[in-house]
Write a structure and sequence with these properties.
Helix content: 25-40%
Number of helices: 6
Shape: rod-shaped
Strand order of the largest sheet: 1-2
Structural class: alpha+beta
Region (Disordered): 114-162
Biased composition (Low complexity): 119-132, 140-154
């Protein structure tokens, strides 16, 4: 008794149609899949799947699927060198993860003719660090010397000389002393050296 074949995914059926080597539109692939497998895939679903399969950024098989715009639609075909891939290898090459994934590096070893369709994987050059322009330190401003306030000119010492008073009695002495004290009081605020002399005569 024959084992029943496992159903293929839409991606497998579409890749199988491309491996025919024909240039096909989405509608033509949909019709081919229906005829070969009896499975109906909507045209818009075929178009959506083809946009992913033909994008090398999304799957490695995209390096080997050519996409050309003709009129209002696109035509897809597998490059000549990729037609040597088995349907299983081609499908596994479209996988991003999984144990069954067929890596691009292995495919290039097995089919060297595919190398010309892949871009050389050149390591991205690291952007050179922007040169840091050393900022010149601001010139140190010498602190201005505090202007020393000129000492206010000292009040000139005034030496007031009072002419000697000749006194003959005690009352006159008291009056003279009172006048001298009053004179000193009038000159308040001045730094004075006052010399008072009394001469008593018989």
């Amino acid at each position: 008794m024959k084992k029943k074949k496992a159903d293929k995914s839409n991606a497998q059926l579409i890749i199988g149609a491309l491996l025919s080597g024909k240039s096909l539109r989405s509608r033509e692939i949909s019709e081919m899949v229906l005829e070969d497998s009896g499975k109906e895939i909507k045209v818009q679903d075929v178009a959506s799947m083809l946009s992913k399969l033909s994008d090398s950024q999304k799957c490695d098989l995209g390096f080997f699927i050519e996409r050309k715009k003709i009129g209002t639609g696109f035509v897809y075909n597998m490059v000549k060198e990729a037609l040597k891939l088995s349907e299983k290898q081609a499908y596994n090459l479209s996988l991003k993860t999984g144990k069954d994934r067929y890596k691009l590096e292995q495919a290039l070893k097995d089919f060297p003719g595919l190398k010309k369709y892949t871009k050389p994987s050149t390591p991205k050059s690291k952007p050179s660090p922007a040169k840091t322009v050393a900022k010149k330190a601001p010139k140190s401003v010498k602190p201005s010397k505090p202007v020393k306030a000129k000492p206010s000119p000292a009040k000139a010492k005034k030496e007031t000389k009072i002419p000697p008073v000749i006194l003959s009695d005690e009352k006159v002495i008291e009056e003279a002393a009172a006048k001298i004290i009053q004179k000193i009081a009038d000159l308040e605020g001045l730094n004075m050296n006052v010399t008072v002399s009394f001469k008593l005569e018989d």
